[in-house]
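A.,

Following up on our hallway conversation. Structure tokens first:
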């Protein structure tokens, strides 16, 4: 067996796309496709199901990738340890609302301090197993991180807030209770087209509850939600950090603050390993220094 073909299979399993796997490995798409076929011919089993729209592993392919991932990761980490300098590609899956991590300065300073580390950030609100997809770490709200993961706080407590422009509120009135939102034009969020809009969550008398606002405008893009709200399009809902600058200028007005207490913030999370890769250790140390 040509062992050089195994990284091709791992890349395809993580990217779920021949073109993306080829770009990642610095190869042509046809080279990756032909390499997978050679591996299948050697093993006498189909490893990858190919259609015009998608690529997925067969059961045999899943078994092989599962057995390869640990040893290949150990080899990769061993190759990255040279002269004590962190190096290699650091793949991160980050939720779109993690403003403290995505704002720019944190990553810019990390890149400056660690020039041998290539940071590859996928901004996604899809929930998936970061280990299975080949990511080194992820950033999510602490309350939704699996218990078997190590979590390192990125920032302080977070708070969600409802907001609208003064012009919209002057025309339609100011809601004084979350239930009033049902009679307002709302701008909502959903993680994917086939899912229902996110319910807006509140706390009253120490008891949490949610409101299904039936938004007139729905999107998976927080930036679009904000732009529509700034254009007097209605009331929107999201992390305080994302709206804070507009509260300062008076462009947006915070609403229903007494029903929206703080909660645990964002964390960098990753699986527990006996030896942490130097590139990931560098990011963890950077985060801790950044918080201080």
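Then the amino acids I'd put at each of the 292 positions:
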């Amino acid at each position: 067996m040509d062992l050089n073909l195994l990284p091709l299979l791992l890349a395809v399993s993580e990217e779920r796309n021949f073109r993306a796997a080829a770009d990642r490995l610095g190869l042509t798409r046809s080279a990756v496709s032909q390499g997978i076929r050679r591996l299948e011919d050697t093993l006498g089993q189909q490893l990858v199901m190919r259609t015009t729209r998608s690529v997925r592993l067969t059961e045999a392919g899943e078994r092989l990738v599962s057995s390869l991932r640990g040893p290949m990761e150990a080899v990769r980490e061993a190759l990255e340890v040279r002269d004590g300098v962190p190096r290699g590609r650091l793949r991160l899956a980050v939720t779109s609302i993690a403003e403290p991590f995505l704002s720019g300065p944190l990553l810019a300073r990390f890149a400056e301090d660690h020039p041998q580390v290539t940071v590859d950030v996928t901004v996604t609100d899809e929930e998936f197993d970061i280990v299975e997809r080949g990511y080194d770490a992820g950033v999510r709200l602490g309350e939704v991180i699996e218990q078997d993961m190590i979590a390192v706080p990125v920032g302080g407590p977070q708070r969600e807030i409802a907001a609208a422009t003064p012009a919209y509120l002057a025309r339609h009135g100011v809601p004084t209770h979350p239930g009033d939102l049902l009679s307002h034009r709302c701008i909502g969020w959903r993680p994917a087209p086939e899912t229902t809009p996110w319910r807006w969550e509140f706390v009253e008398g120490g008891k949490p509850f949610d409101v299904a606002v039936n938004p007139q405008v729905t999107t998976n893009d927080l930036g679009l939600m904000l732009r529509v709200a700034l254009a007097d399009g209605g009331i929107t809902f999201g992390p305080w950090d994302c709206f804070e600058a507009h509260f300062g200028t008076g462009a947006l007005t915070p609403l229903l603050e007494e029903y929206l207490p703080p909660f645990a913030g964002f964390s960098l999370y990753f699986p527990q390993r006996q030896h942490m890769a130097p590139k990931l250790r560098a990011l963890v140390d950077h985060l801790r220094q950044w918080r201080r």
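The first strand starts at residue 48 and ends at 50. Curious whether your intuition agrees with the design.

B.
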